[in-house]
Structures are given as structure tokens and as C-alpha cells.
């Protein structure tokens, strides 16, 4: 696989030569969700274990050229996704697992977190919105990771990836 080590940003859609080398079936999934530059469709990717769903999601993140959120089932999945995005593709990522935070929260392209953390932040989203609107967020009692996640949830993101979404059991995801 050829790795893309470019930074995300407002640059135009990258030519295929700089994209990771994907198999035809993976490219078919990518094209179904992103049929042309700047156009994304909601969808569900169904692939067997080990066939490259992470590569498909990573290519969609690369093509999105904006702030993204990835939600995974548990800390192990978060760690694996972050490692893939950082080392293989060179994305600036923040990892939000339980109470742990790693990465540069202010400069990250991709936030990777768990369903449990999302559920906790969504449960207090009105408090977060109020802090944001009043410009009092820096003095908020919420953790830096929760503040970043809430900002990402209150503002439009380029892409939201729900990994293993069928495992999400919280009422907020039903």
C-alpha cells in the first residue's frame, strides 16, 4: 500500500496518485460514499473482518479535507484507528478514550473517541453549547477532551465515521 502523508486542509481534492492503494472492492465502497470531489453520501459499509474497513474510512477521511470524528466501540479500537491514521496516513489526531486524552487537541484533523464518551458528552451538550455561546469555555469545568468533543459535535464536521455501529447500545444511538 502506498501511504499518503499530506496534511488535511482546504487544498483541492488530491489526485489518485497520492491516495493509498486500495483494492477494487474498497474503492467501490469509497466511490459509493464519495462519488465525486466534495460530494459525500451517508452510507453503511458492510465488509468481513480483516477486509479493510479502516482503509475505506481512512480514504474517506483523506478525501473529506476537513475536521472529522471517528467513534469506535472501545479503547482498543480507538488505539488501532489512531495508530493507522497517524503512522500510515500522517493525520493529526486526538484520541479521547474514557478519561485519557492524547494528541494536540487544538490542531487535530481527526478526533477518535468511544461511544461511551460520546454518550456522556451528548448528555451534557446543552451545558457545552451555553459555554461556547458565552465565550466561557476555557473556564468550563468539563475536561479538555470533553470540550473538544462537544465543539466538534456542535459544529459541522466534514465526516462522521461510526465504527462497529451495531454495537452501540446507548439510548442516544437508537
Rg calculated over all Cα atoms = 16 Å
Q: Write out the strand line-up for the largest beta sheet, numbering strands in chain order.
A: 3-2-4-1-5
- Amino-to-carboxy terminus distance: 37 Å
Helix content: 25-40%
Estimated share of beta-strand residues: 5-15%
Query: How much is the average pLDDT?
Result: 76
Order of helices and strands: HHEHEEEHHHE
Tell me about the largest β-sheet: 5 strands, mixed
State the helix count.
Answer: 6
Derived structural class: alpha/beta
Number of strands: 5
- Tell the overall outline: globular
Q: Give the low-confidence spans.
A: 1-17
Topology of this structure?
Blueprint: H1 24-33, H2 53-64, E1 68-72, H3 75-88, E2 93-97, E3 100-102, E4 110-114, H4 115-123, H5 125-134, H6 144-154, E5 159-162
Parallel strand pairs: 1-4, 1-5, 2-4
Antiparallel strand pairs: 2-3
Helix pairs in contact: 1-2, 4-6, 5-6
Task: Please tell me about this protein's structure.
The protein has 174 residues and is an alpha/beta fold. The chain has helices at 24-33, 53-64, 75-88, 115-123, 125-134, 144-154; strands at 68-72, 93-97, 100-102, 110-114, 159-162. The chain has a five-stranded mixed sheet, with helices on both faces. Strand 2 (93-97) and strand 3 (100-102) form a beta hairpin. The longest helix has 14 residues, at 75-88. It starts with 23 loop residues before the first helix and ends in a 12-residue tail after the last strand.
